[in-house]
Write a structure and sequence with these properties.
This protein is of the alpha/beta class. The protein has 18 helices and 13 strands. The chain binds ligand F0G. Ligand F0G binds next to helix 5, helix 10 and helix 14.
């Protein structure tokens, strides 16, 4: 399993190229679609040459106790399934992955589901799931000798890229939509030393500008069109399967923005299944924000076979994306696994986020679409009470503290958004109260809020 022979296979026309042959924008020269990393050697192995599932599972678990830096990474401890580097010594790691799988007992009880879990990717080094993809793709950039890396971002990709580039000693360029990303994320890009440009456009506009730049300059593109990103982002699928002792949950629910993460997780489970490490795959459901829902519209209009871009609006800024690059891959994952594609509104997102917060976990708004989506699936009878459900929480609550504070101060949801939900909103709100600096005043404030 250690042969480094990977190829890039076009998702649209099936054309195969070697990794270094890819165009700077990672689009197929024949049909313009995206590539997937493929390992042709895996299919050719027969009999004793096939990887031994038991030995791999043992090895991956053992590595958690190893003193090697690479083994401490929740991405690279599965390196047999992502042989994308000529030398694993080139890997740039911040010890990403190995994120916790938490039970959500209160949300589970409220929904009548016994087995509800959150895989918290916000517990990665820069606070989002992007780290798992960045360790993979940035390592390829370093191995291929690039001095500059770049991304367009709604915030988390830029934070992750800037951090990994800094660790590797590479320069990084970030393009973000002005005024439309959370401050926590912007501060990270600055802190880690990226050149950060705020453009007067949206995320999709930033992608267009960056695509032109990388076609002209020797800068390595680290948006999720880069197929190596997905190789890292598939590894939480391995961790989830491992956490369930290599059975898999019935449902995995993932937020959808540029739609790479759902594609990556689908690939991860598919590969585990093809290699005989798991007996089946979970249904993978993608949830978008109502104001940024091009894939949902596409499923309603034509079963996900064609997609029209939309102008995106949502306070969950991480998924404010109207023209998602990986929509075809995500649509296939939904079809192949028997999942669904649905959207949730701003009120549903805010309430779900508050519920996750009240379990002591917290997450950023884009992650909370998963619980909001689960409520809808449950109401439609698409998730049974005895089934096991994993929500993928993609970002840390501190990424967007303004959103949380606005919710608890009562300034986030007003007017139409709040209408009809006042009681539920009030039951979750916990504003910070200003009181006199005396024990009596503090105790009085507590009494007013107890019971
Ligand atoms: N959740 C969070 C917290 C995100 O930052 C993103 C994407 C998503 C969900 C959606 O994942 O794009 O793979 O469908 N953020 C990107 C960025 C686009 O630039 O940070 P996706």
């Amino acid at each position: 399993m250690n042969d480094n022979l990977h190829q890039l296979r076009c998702f649209g026309c099936g054309a195969r190229i070697s990794g270094p042959e890819a165009q700077p924008d990672f689009r197929c020269a024949v049909c313009g679609d995206l590539f997937e990393v493929d390992y042709p050697g895996w299919g050719q192995r027969q009999g004793n040459d096939r990887p031994n599932p038991g030995a791999l599972k043992w090895l991956w678990r053992e590595r958690r106790c190893s003193s090697e830096e690479l083994d401490h990474s929740g991405v690279w401890r599965f390196r047999e399934l992502l042989p994308i580097l000529d030398s694993f010594g080139d890997a740039v790691t911040l010890r990403e992955g190995n994120t916790p799988l938490y039970a959500l007992p209160r949300a589970g009880k409220a929904l009548g589901i016994d087995q509800l879990f959150a895989k918290h990717q916000g517990m990665n080094p820069t606070g989002s799931f992007k780290d798992t993809g960045m360790t993979a793709a940035l390592s390829v950039a370093r191995e291929r000798g690039f001095k500059w890396v770049a991304c367009a971002s709604t915030g988390n990709t830029s934070a992750a890229m800037a951090a990994y580039a800094a660790r590797a000693g590479l320069r990084s360029l970030v393009l973000i939509p002005e005024g439309k990303i959370a401050w926590g994320k912007l501060s990270q890009a600055m802190d880690y030393g990226a050149i950060t440009c705020q453009l007067k456009t949206d995320f999709d506009g930033c992608v267009r500008v960056l695509t032109q730049i990388v076609r002209e300059e020797p800068i390595y593109l680290l948006n999720s069109v880069n197929p190596y990103r997905l190789e890292g982002q598939k590894t939480p699928a391995f961790e989830i399967a491992e956490a369930f002792e290599w059975t898999v949950p019935d449902h995995l629910i993932v937020p959808g923005g540029n739609l790479a993460n759902s594609s990556a997780l689908g690939k991860g489970f598919r590969e585990l299944h093809e290699l005989g490490l798991v007996a089946r795959v979970p249904r993978i459901t993608v949830v978008q924000a109502e104001g940024a829902n091009p894939l949902v519209r596409s499923f309603l209009a034509n079963q996900g076979t064609a997609m029209e871009p939309v102008e995106a609006h949502t306070r969950a800024t991480a998924i404010r994306i109207g023209n998602p690059a990986s929509w075809r891959k995500a649509a296939r994952v939904i079809h192949d696994t028997g999942g669904w594609c649905l959207d949730v509104n701003e009120t549903e997102i805010a309430l779900a986020k508050a519920e996750i917060g009240s379990e002591g976990l917290g997450c950023e708004p884009a992650s909370a679409v998963t619980l909001a989506g689960l409520k809808k699936l449950r109401a439609k009878g698409l998730v049974a009470s005895g089934e096991t459900v994993v929500l993928l929480l993609t970002g840390h609550t501190l990424k967007d503290a303004d959103y949380t504070i606005d919710f608890h101060r009562g300034t986030l949801l007003t007017g139409q958004e709040a209408a009809g939900h006042e009681v539920e909103i009030e039951s979750h709100r916990r504003d910070a109260v200003a009181v006199d600096a005396t024990p009596a005043a503090v105790l009085a404030a507590m009494k007013g809020r107890m019971g």
